Amino acid sequence: MKTIATLIFVLFIGVTAQAQTATEEVKVATIEMTIVTETSTEEVSLENTIEVARLYKRDNARVTKALSFTTKRNKAKMA
């Protein structure tokens, strides 16, 4: 008996909840777009610059030089 009363109560709540939702029509604002038929191009002038690149005898010479630094704590201590 209790389950039947619970089922009827749940169905009654569901039906009343569905009956109260009102759907309103939403008006959509339209935007008019035009098609572009002409495109403008800008001329870009290239400057000839001479740049000199450094060449090292070995690969990663700058990296190995940076990694080979020594500090005061690198020195061996007398025990």
TrEMBL record:
Protein name per UniProt: Uncharacterized protein
Protein keywords: Signal
From which residue to which does the signal peptide run?
Answer: 1-19
